[in-house]
Amino acid sequence: MSNLIYRVVAACGALGYGYPKESLQAALKGRVDAIICDGGSMDAGPYYLGTGTEYFEREAVKADYRHMVAAGKQIGCPVILGSSGMAGGNRNLDWMIAVAKEVFAELKVEGAKVAVIRSELDPEIVIQEFRNGALRPTGLGPDLDEQSLRESVIVGQMGVHPLITAIEAGAQYILAGRSCDVALFASDMIRRGIDAGLAYHVGHVLECGALACDPGSPSDCLVAEIYDDGSALFSAPNPTRRCTAYSIAAHSLYEESHPQLQFYPEGVLALEKTQFFSKDSWTAGIRGSRFVRSSKPWPWSIKLEGARHLGTRKVSLIYIDPAALPRIPSEVLVYGRNGVQATPVEASKRELGIIIETAAPTQEAATLLASLLTHYLIHYGYAGRKATAGNIAYPLSPNLISFKRDDGQFGAIVPSGTRDPVFFANYPRIKEAVIGLIAQEFPDALANARFTITEADAANPAILLRSVGHDPVELASRHRQEIERITSVATPKTNSRLNLDAPDAYVWSLYHLLQNEDVIKNTMFPITYYRASGAEWAEESTARPNYFDIGETGYCGNIDDRTLSVIADHAPAGAPVGTQRLIDMAVVIRSKDAGINRLTFDVIFASAESYEASLHSNVFAREQIAKILNVPLDRVVGTFFVDTCNAIKISIDRPNISASMDERDVFGAQQQAAIEHLSIPIYAAALGRASSF
Question: What's this model's pTM, rounded to 2 decimal places?
Fold first, then answer.
């Protein structure tokens, strides 16, 4: 009989998403070796790194962290937070430290050892690497130049070593800058001698909280138990969620451009032989994952992210009569036509704009309610959801615009959209549930502000105009001309919002690998230790991370992401005997950014028969997918089969760098519509093995 050797709690998908207190309390029953949460990522765009600000509301972040600290104080286990303050730069980290000090004071935390690990890097160091030709691209763009780098805020994603060093030094509370999400969870397991392949894979499943469940949501807890037989079991402390073999397998593909290879600072996680299994109807597990210490660029490659200021921004949201829509230039973003994707929605399909607007006596109250509605709506998990990466697409980073209303009150507005037919069918109850969650968790937010949610579609089109520039006078003139271009052919409705001052625009200036081991080991990720007594933190010492090799050598499997598990282009013989809607064959059909320069699509099938029939159809060959997604063939990175969980993954180069000025979907979470609407031809050869058609 296997023995439990480690148990870890993931609080939620990102600090600020919120999670039920009851879930954490249930998760704390029994052994707890660590409580961990990711604090953010680059998903929401470069603004947060460039400005050093937080994506989530301060009250939400503080509430989430307070629960973690209270639990850590009670149990005495490590409490780890990475990518602090969303982007993990120095200003983001300092913001989170201020929140932590408040929490420590309120909870009367005394004598605790705290480690602060910084990840920001001097641009001049990066410029020297650029001059030496030593920065390795991670795909297409962004283009590098010295001036852009000099104007950038730059961070590196830390791996496990700085975190292990801090835990070994006795730090109970760790606040880390920009971090590899998986490293937050893998570090303590590796420190305790747990196999690296299992540790990294467990970390990947945990890093988004209960998003790996059915139904999934990052606004809830997830627990992993590690056993001495080399297996791990996942369970949700919330009884309304289940962990199944398919939900764990589906999340193992999440945000990765290859289904079976994941690249980390220390090596490569290989999932080719991973087994996904269900223990019971609520618990599922993994075994057999491998971690490979390979040749360059791994180990000791650190992914660098840089953000720089582009200019100030003006935005207008113009509602028009549908009869005027044909007169609106084709390149203009219109919800109901091309708000979610640049390619117009087909006449037989639907595109829905969802515009959240709040009003309140104070700007803080208006912003808080708009933020809560936005964050809950994008990730609300509901039964039957296919697009588990996000329910709606945001065109702006930040996605929220604050303004002064004509009635003297303050307002906030968030434009977004979707083309997901499953979401359409569930939208009324999703909206009701989201409002109910906010009423339960943040009752003052609803008491202090009012809101409207406007649905924009072909019958009620909404135009989004965006202008960016450095000179305020020139920007105002240019944006006014863009408005006049629309109003000359269409009359704005009274609820239109014109000439709003949106947050400044930032762009990604760097997304490359640093391979200079001297810089990595002797400059990056300095650790400062404090002795905390409430809000008073006395600095005790500083340290450098201790580095050592991780992973196996001599691995005989394939770790080439351009050849492993590639779907061959092989036309089936004969004529199809029928068709089946893909949406009826799959339990997950989603899209998501895999970094700032790639989009990945995951299709997880409901049965092995449906999976085999879809592979046999040849619909998912690289050449066919290029046509379906309307992208050049050389932009299709690959299409891959995944026998271990009956899945197909598609990865393409992003049409633009995430959060560019022409962005329609910052997170890339609503680009799957063309795949979602596919009908799969069924061939006799597939029927010979199938029982579900």
Answer: 0.94
